[in-house]
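dumping these here so i dont lose them again. two proteins, back to back, each one seq then structure tokens. dont judge the mess
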Amino acid sequence: MDGIDPGAPGVRAQMQRLIYGFFTSQVLYVAARLEIPDVLAAGPQTTAEVAAATKAHPPSLYRLLRALAYLGIAEQRGPDTFALTERGELLRSDTIGSLRELVMLLAGPESWRAWGHLEHAVRTGEVAWDRAFGENTFDYLAARADRQAGFNAAMAEGSRAFVPTLLAACDFTAYARVVDVGGGSGALLAGVLAAHPRMRGVVFDTPAGVADAPAELAAAGVADRCEVVAGDFFRTVPTGGDAYLLKSVLHDWDDDRCVAILASCRRAMAAHAELIVIESVMPAVVDGAANLAQLVMNDLNMMVCHGGRERTVPEFSALLNAAGLRLQAVSPCAAPSTVAILTATPSS
């Protein structure tokens, strides 16, 4: 047989790790749900101590803690003593840069159920989430305050972590007023405003999307320089901005809806204004590069949960052109990130 022997131990082990991938996601989800990293943050503890704090079944919890030790979330320091690792710190609820809310979102029951319809989505082109729940993701969240809060928290968590990368990649000094379209809790814009004391801003999203924005802006000390406006970005967005931000918005939607969002931005923009699109960029050809794992899997998640997609630079350019905008520059963020800053201006 030519090529790799499918029976080779190394190849089989690699495939088994892939097959068991969903086991890992659920281990992380349960650990986050039980707040085990928060408990272990106080120092090494026995299974009984962790069980008492999390109200879990000790023998079953012990087996979960062993799995967390294997995954590098915890360290087993004896037959029945576990400590939190540096990696595990990222699952704490009170750590800057935490990924806990992302785990809760992507490995939670709704995503779990929607991904069960991946085959249907691939066969038909229909949105798996809509088949699973009978409504689209954003309508589902808006009708359930606790789930909307979880989604908002996950998005804010990622935005806070991204602020330093954005400030390093994009010069905001020329902008007096920045409008963050689909800005959710305002975590991203709060970071930009904090770095530019003379700048003013507007956070714009649906009523459910901006529910946490006043508190977020107040906590960052920028509430006096930032408006919170609720609305529908498919119809209109606030006018008067020197720059319009769109971070991780376009990948949620199909091409027609993206053009509608971009056209709303274009109508609001003065001739001098700039649109700053912040999105992961799909390469023309995908290989096994480690930094592409999140990108290609998130592309599938957009298909499953929203009907959206990750896009190449030419695809972004085509969307912008269709909305009366012209792509002026593409600035990749520092490696290994696949995110880029795409700057566009009105084409007429």
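---- next one ----
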Amino acid sequence: MCSESSRPVSSPDAGVLPPSPLGLYLHIPFCSAICHYCNFNRGLLDEALKRRYVDALEREILREGDGAAADTIYFGGGTPSLLEPDEIARLIRACARAYRLTADTEVTLEVNPETVDVERMRKFRDAGINRLSIGVQSFRDEELRRLGRVHDAARAARAYEDCRRAGFDNISLDLMMWLPQQTVADWLTSIDRLIALAPDHASLYLLELYPNAPLKDDMARSQWSQAAEDDAADMYLEGFSRLDDAGYRQYEISNVCRPGRASRHNLKYWQDGEWMAFGCGAHGTRNGRRWKNDTSTADYVHRIDAGASVAVDERMLDHEERMQDALFMGLRLTEGVDVDRVRRKFGVNVSDRYGRGLQPFLDAGILVADAGVLRLTRQGMLLANEVCRVFV
């Protein structure tokens, strides 16, 4: 990225709302095995390349930092927990040198169960990690085998308990629904196992079948299928209902939490916030500029070594695109979109511009307009894409 990227640019909404602290996203592309469903930017662990990559990542952070306030750091991947705790500590120190981290900065590490032991997790906590996101995906062994996961259900539960013993009090678990051969009852078994563990946060995702993912070929070869869409809807609705009963609060289409444990970093994506992105394939948005870094790990390192920009796809969003993003992402939240805030920031009356297109969804009870807020019902969240087409 060019150094000019951090300078403010003029926009119709400049000065109307004060800037919030940035989020800092750091992409770690290494994995010990490649999951059959995965379409993320990742590759198998190469220790020599990993060392060079951490060096490059540190230099990118220091090169791009401008001393702006930041209050979240998120290590995503890949499998960031394959880094050593001293490497994580080094990258956090780079963030602290390059940005003004708030005293309560949320620092999240994505973790795979097979990388966990108590002592290692204590070292990550000492390094500065204060939140964990554990990629469980399922508590049923046959489903984990189909997904190509390295761990089994017992290992996942043990990893969670080890993280608690290491002193972590803010842990999220990921689960995936609509897996090959999965029934509604199978899915609810995983939900019940999650509730019994009592994490602080959980993310529940519908499986997306990507054309280039090995799982698609596995399904064709083994004649596996996904449940009917009506069953997928039941998985979603019944799963969240059980989490309601267990005291969790849904705050986004795919996310629930205990009080005060929402993912502050991910809220930046959904609340029209801004974040810097570091590492290969990372996406960032700041001052109306959006960019993606070179996806090749080796090429990313070469670019940093050469002092070149690593952004290979960057552009300035126009006013209309920024407003549409605010509406798309805001509707993912259960609290919905504050239409008065949209009017103040973008100069658009949502009702005047989109009222006719939104009315059928309001009539059907999929969408609710109340006290200046536009929000989806839980049933409506299953149709979020259809509603959002109104804004295009």
